[in-house]
Amino acid sequence: MSVQNMRCLFPALRMNTCATRVQFRPAVQRFPSFIRSYADSSAASIPGTANPAAGASTASTSNSREELGDITNDRAREPFQRGNRTNSNNTSSSSNSNNNSQRPPAPTRLMKRVLHVRRVARVNSGGKVRSVSALVVVGNGNGAAGYGEGRAVEAAAAVLKATRNAEKNMTSFYRFNNRTIFNNIDFNWHKVRLQLRSAPPGYGVVANNHIHEICRCIGISDLGAKVHGSRNPLNVIKATFEALHRQRRPEDIARARGSKVMDVELTYYGHTDKSNSKP
């Protein structure tokens, strides 16, 4: 190829290769022969130039374009092929029933109730440092619950801290027939005088709003409660948790009297209940 032909070829070659590079940049880098074949075909198309291998270059150009199209299609199909390989792996793994049976069950989602949020201030040498305090109760609705307190500058951060503390403080509670408490409870916590009464099936929870939310988190569906004295939400919540912890079960009464649990259950409840256990 003469120098004159190359000078005529360079502008068209630069324009075409730029367009090709924008459209198929990875393929051009991998197959530089495509540019050379395209350059030969462009030189053959210039009038007044003779190229004995024009037919061969045209055929190679078409072949290169076809190869480039196949490569582009293969790259476009790569994500779907990865998904198919993943699905095939999942299918092969699901065929092994022994491995699936050994997997742990999914964790139970906890119920969260933000019962009290207040603004507090701490006084130091520089003045008042204001923050937000929150109290949160969490439970699984099946006999386990806990409460926690958190303090931060923002309310959302305080609620998050309180939730984490409540999850750490979760404990189990005994329930009669998985719906109510075993007996009536009279409990004093500071200036709070709390009265909890067991109820028959279908009675519902007739109580203070804070006690109502605690019962929902624990899984108590039948209960009557009254609060006398101080109505401070912090003390009411703490008194409720402490009172439910200290309730006396038939096993405790039988152990104190030296009698059988069955006799105590027949005396107090009129029948024996074998489901009085922690979750």
From TrEMBL:
<dbReference type="GO" id="GO:0006412">
    <property type="term" value="P:translation"/>
</dbReference>
<feature type="domain" description="S5 DRBM">
    <location>
        <begin position="110"/>
        <end position="173"/>
    </location>
</feature>
<feature type="region of interest" description="Disordered">
    <location>
        <begin position="45"/>
        <end position="109"/>
    </location>
</feature>
<dbReference type="InterPro" id="IPR013810">
    <property type="entry name" value="Ribosomal_uS5_N"/>
</dbReference>
<dbReference type="GO" id="GO:0005840">
    <property type="term" value="C:ribosome"/>
</dbReference>
<feature type="compositionally biased region" description="Low complexity">
    <location>
        <begin position="47"/>
        <end position="63"/>
    </location>
</feature>
<dbReference type="Pfam" id="PF00333">
    <property type="entry name" value="Ribosomal_S5"/>
</dbReference>
<dbReference type="InterPro" id="IPR018192">
    <property type="entry name" value="Ribosomal_uS5_N_CS"/>
</dbReference>
<dbReference type="Pfam" id="PF03719">
    <property type="entry name" value="Ribosomal_S5_C"/>
</dbReference>
<dbReference type="InterPro" id="IPR020568">
    <property type="entry name" value="Ribosomal_Su5_D2-typ_SF"/>
</dbReference>
<feature type="compositionally biased region" description="Basic and acidic residues">
    <location>
        <begin position="64"/>
        <end position="80"/>
    </location>
</feature>
<dbReference type="InterPro" id="IPR000851">
    <property type="entry name" value="Ribosomal_uS5"/>
</dbReference>
<protein>
    <recommendedName>
        <fullName>S5 DRBM domain-containing protein</fullName>
    </recommendedName>
</protein>
<dbReference type="GO" id="GO:1990904">
    <property type="term" value="C:ribonucleoprotein complex"/>
</dbReference>
<dbReference type="GO" id="GO:0003735">
    <property type="term" value="F:structural constituent of ribosome"/>
</dbReference>
<dbReference type="InterPro" id="IPR014721">
    <property type="entry name" value="Ribsml_uS5_D2-typ_fold_subgr"/>
</dbReference>
<dbReference type="GO" id="GO:0003723">
    <property type="term" value="F:RNA binding"/>
</dbReference>
<keyword id="KW-0689">Ribosomal protein</keyword>
<dbReference type="GO" id="GO:0005737">
    <property type="term" value="C:cytoplasm"/>
</dbReference>
<feature type="compositionally biased region" description="Low complexity">
    <location>
        <begin position="86"/>
        <end position="101"/>
    </location>
</feature>
<keyword id="KW-0687">Ribonucleoprotein</keyword>
<dbReference type="InterPro" id="IPR005324">
    <property type="entry name" value="Ribosomal_uS5_C"/>
</dbReference>
<comment type="similarity">
    <text>Belongs to the universal ribosomal protein uS5 family.</text>
</comment>
